Every structure is written in C-alpha cells, then in structure tokens.
Description:
- Chain A has 246 residues and is an alpha/beta fold.
- Helix content of chain A is 35%, strand content 23%.
- In chain A, the strands form 2 sheets. In chain A, strands 6-4-7-8-3-9-10-11 form an 8-stranded mixed beta sheet. Chain A has a two-stranded antiparallel sheet with strand order 1-2.
- Among the domains of chain B are: 258-385, Dna Ligase, domain 1 (2-Layer Sandwich), CATH 3.30.1490; 394-485, no CATH class.
- Chain B is 36% helix and 25% strand.
- Chain B contains 17 helices and 20 strands.
- The radius of gyration of chain B is 28 Å and the shape is globular.
- At the A-B interface, β5, α4, β6, α5 and β9 of A face α17, β13, β14, β16 and β17 of B.
- β5 (83-84) of chain A pairs antiparallel with β16 of chain B.
Amino acid sequence: MNKTLSVLNNHPHIWRAREQKQSEAKYSLGFPRLDEALNGGVASTGLVRVASLTGVGELSLFKDVICHHRTHKLVVFINPPGHLQSPWLENLGLKAEQVLVVKTQVQQESLWAAEQCLKSTACHCVLLWSNTINQKEARRLQVAATHNDALCLLYTPLQQSLSSSSKQRNNLQGSSQAHSSDALPITLDLCLQGNPHSLSVNIRKQRHGWPKDNIVILHKWTPDNNAIKWAMAHNTLSDQALHSVS
Amino acid sequence: MLWAYIYCYQLTLDSHNYAAKHKAVHYPESSIDTANTSSWLTSSAPIAVYCSKVNKIIQCNDVAKKEGIDIGHGLAQAAALCPYIHILPFNAESERQILTQLAHRLYPLASDIVLDSHAYSGGLAVRLDNLVHYYGGHAPLWKTLTQALSESDVRYHFGCAWTIEAAKVLALRKHDSYLHALDDIKKALNTCPLSLTALAPNVIESLARVGVTRVQQLLAMPVQELGRRFDNNTIVYLTALRGETFPRVTLFRPLERFDNFLLLPFDVENIQHLTPFVTQQFEHLAYYLRARNLYTSSVSVHIHFREASPINIAIHSALPQSSVKSWLPLFTLKIENLVLPEPATAVELKCQEFEAVDTHNGDFFSDRFNDVAQKQLIGRLNAKLGDNSTFQPRAGNSHQFEYMTVNESSGSEYTYCSDTAPTFTFDSPKPLTQPTQICFGPVRLHSEWWRDRTNQRDYFIAQTPQSVRLLVFKDEKKQWWVHGLFC
C-alpha cells in the first residue's frame, strides 16, 4: 500500500503547491494584475473555459494571445453567436486569410469540428461557443489541444457557472458528492463579470496555481466619446474668446 | 485500384485568364492604362485558341461561344462571325508545361500522378485508392483535391474508374461525378459511345459494322473472340478498360531543380510590366522551396522573345532565402536599367542550386506542412458538415454594417474599414428592450441609393447594466434597435 502510494506520488502530473515555478510556455494577456495571478499568462496549449455574458469584451481580452503568436496558423471560430465582421478582425490585428468560420447545426457537430481543427496542426487557436460540455468531451478537447500545440477557448454562458457555485456550496454543506459535473479536467477556467467601468475576472481553476476571485482590470474594447467629453469640458475658455471677438 | 482522370480541356485559355486576372489584382493602376488600349484584360472579350496545324479553333471562351464561334471552326469562319476576336496561338509544348505545373500543385496532396498529354488537350490521372486511408474517406480526399484544382483556375471534366483508361473514357464523357462502387462505375461506363475510347478509328469502324457502338456491347464480348480479329494493342487496351490488367505507366516525379515557364498573355514591351508575372513565378518558387525545406541563393529569370535570343538575368543574394518578399526587390533592382530589344513573349524562372535549412531553426520546421494541413482540414470539415459550413470573412464594398463583410472574396478593389464595426452582427436587428447607457456615438449612416430599401440610421455603442456593449441604432421613426455585439 505504502509503496503504491509513493509510486503515485512520483507521477509528473501531480502538482504540489510548493512547486511554484513551472517552466511552461505562457502567453501574456497584457494586463499585469491578471498575468500575475495566472503565473505569467494563459498556457500556450490546452482548453480554456471562459464563462461570461456575450459582449463584455471576452474576445478582446485575449487579443494578444490570439493575434501575436503562431501567426502563420489559422484562428477558427466555431459556431459564433452572430456574423463575424471583417473590419473588427482587422482592428484586432488578424489577417482575413488567417480566419476560418465554421457554422454547425448541433452541439455534437461543433465539438467534432473543434477536435478536428485542433488535431489538424493547422490551427493556432480554436474559439468555440457551446452551451454545455461534459467531462469526457472536455478531456477530449484538452488532449487534442495539448498534443498538437494548439489553444482552445471555450465560451459558455454565465448561468451554468452560477448554478455550479451554488452546487459547490451544497457540497460544502455536507452532501459529499465526489465531483460536481462542472469541475472539468482543463487548463484554465475563467469567469468574467462586467462592471460599468471595469471587468472583474474570477479564476475558478487553473493548473499549477491557486484559484483567485475578483481580479479587477481596466479593459477598453470599444471606441468611446471621451475625446468629445473632454473637449466639451474644456470648452468654456474658447467660448469666452469667441464672445470677446464679436 | 481506383483512378481519377482529370481532363483539362482548355489549358491555354485558362492560363491566359489566370495571368490576366493575377495582373489585374496585383497592379490595378497599370491595368487601367493598358485596358484602354487593348480589351483583352476584360473577361468580356471573346478569346479563342487556334491551332495552325489543323486550321481549327480548339478552345474558346463563353463570350466567343455566344458570338457563334465553336470548336472546330476555321480561322476565316471565326473571323467572319466575330471580327474583333482575340486569337491565341496553340503551342503543344507550353500546354504540356501548364499540365506539369498542375501536377506540381497536386503532388503534395497525391503521390501517384500520371501526366497524359496528347495532341490537343491534356489530362492528369490520380490514383485514389491508396490515399483514402490517409484522408479518412473518399469525400474528404476528393474535396481536398478539387479545392487545389479550383485554386489553380483550371476548368476540367473528370471521371473515376478502376483504371486510367476507363476513367479517361468517363472524363471525356463529361461524367463529372465521384464514383467508387464498382457497380456504379460499370453502369456509367456502359452508356459511353466507342468514339470516346482510345481505340484506333479503323477498329471502331469495323466494330460499328457489326453493330457494336457502345462500351457495354464491347465489354460483353469474350476476349478470345476479339483476339482473333484485332491486334495486340487493341486487346491490351480492352483488358485495361475492363479493369483486368493494369498497363505500366510512368508516374510523375517532380524535378530536382525548379523550372517554371510562363507564356505571357500578351507581348510585353516595357520590362517593368513583367513584374506581376515574375511575382507569380516567385510565388511558385516560394511554395516549392517551403514544401522541401530548402533555401536558395541564386535564381535566374529568362525572358523569351519571338526572334531575338533570350535574355538571362541571374540574381544572386548574399543570404540563402526563399520568400517572394526577399526575391522580388532584388529582381526589380536588376531590371531597372534593362531595356527589352523586342516585346517579350514568355518568362521562365529557373533555380538550380538549393541549400538545406539548418535544423536548429525550429520555427521553420513547425509550419512546413501548414498549407497542406489547412487544405486537408477545410476539405474534411466541408465533407462532413456541408459545403457552406466553412468560410473566411472578407471585407465587402459597402459602408453599411450589414454588407461590410462578405463570405467570398468579391474581387472588388475598394473595401471599407471602420473603427465602430462590431464583433458580431445579428441576422436582422432586434428591438432594444433593456435599459442602456450610451458610450459612443452618434454615427449617422444612410443606405446606398441603389439598395431597394433606403433608410437612415443613427448608430451608437450602448452599455447595459451588466456591461454588455451593444451596437444600437435609432431609425427614422425614432425606434431603437440592437444590431450587434462587441465582444
């Protein structure tokens, strides 16, 4: 018994909290506080789940990861929630020939397509929109991504994560269920919540690191009227000048 | 065995179209001044390929067909039907070159290719049965091959059967469907007339005398019977057609060195105007080198003329390199002071010496097979999910958010870029139902006058309490709509 345990203990995939530094390729997100919490950024391979509402800047958050690495390979959008606009891609910094959009009818097809893309070795990053994913499917994608040096970003709605946190609370309260269906064998699990002037990121699970809640970052992903507001606020003087001229 | 025969019936015309289109895309400003003087650039001009040996038109485009010109007409007849027709001379050698280039293009995707060029048209035979395993099925394999063919802009008919001979009959029949079940192939072959087979004319005639005009009747006859009456070549061909024997063929092998010959679509007087065609050849070179993990430090460009002896421009670079970006500036510097003695008719790019890339450079290795992998991936996805399931968004020629992005390259030279474009737009705008706060705007957009419905919209970027940024607009009736999302 003791011997078998020590064998298990030698397994390279077992991570101990005292091993802080892992020599793993990471892609920086460009937000110092977030990068620090993630020990350097997003891992260069594997499956990353991002739970958020659609439209809180969840794609632009990964701008540096998507655009600045492995630029000769494809970025595939599978089952996006609308028509992807080419001027937006251009502003982000992606070339049109680097982008492929895949439209699917059912959930199983999009998972299949994601796995094929990851296995093809032609893709840098696969962005997949999917409502639910179970442990087995997540494991398949995770293995496909890590073995083929690719990254998979999985976008899921926010409700799922809320229900799971309540489930976890239930678990704490006594029912010793082994796993909630929500704990997935993946590299990184994020949850994004938008506030009026900032974006708060919850790291619900990360490999080789601790979860951390409520990392607030300033994230700007749309043009705004600040230039006009600033001009209006500083307008009083020129207004007087105009009067004095007449 | 399963072979596909790809019958390219208008190679000269296709390569002319391709070169003209390529030039127009890369150098729009130069095409404008030449387009005024010669109308060949526009695809609306009637073009025909004429073979002086037999005094016949052997290829012609759709516009020429509309004018009444057909394959088999003489030159005088064609000129009488359409006085402004553009005639290209037929050259069997250059047609063979184009076919070889096509084989080079397919070679990374399929190993066994047989070049089959005969008097006035050419074809490629590709062995499929040994590839099916690697592509994971018939459909992804065929999708991948047809995609590569469509990129080369060659028009073709094809047929699939157990031997090259049988596949060729189906291709000449313009069968154009992928078959792999033996019964289906047999059914398709049975209806073909004997005139499509490669039997000698006197054999066909003597068979017709006894009432045999279809392949079905011929295949039904026992070989021993036919053997008594016809010579050995005919019998060998017949057994191949049945799929009983497989005649020896020479498989295509790419050359050790790079040699790309391009017949210009028109005579070029100014050497600067050669640049687009040479760019095209450098692209071929870059692709060739990439696939073989090689660099080169010297290339030579040969310019051919009608009468004068060809000019040879040797270009050396200090550093071994492969990309178009690095070779093209060297070429333009070289030709700056050159003057052509007479109009050029063809350019040829040769490269003899290669250097291997040092293996320490891991980055080079990592994207070596990327191009092939991408094609295979798209072929596979389309095979399972349907042809319209994948596309690449391209910039469209419109300032309205609905029409800014198109799925296929429209070839229009004018595209809009916009800071305010959202990540995603909806199929149709939805009414705005939640409270929002405006953070950018307004931007007023009118629809173009040629659209059916004219409208005027004031666009804003608005933020909901959950911090979701929406593209909203107010229409002329002061109603608010959500049109897109910023992710």
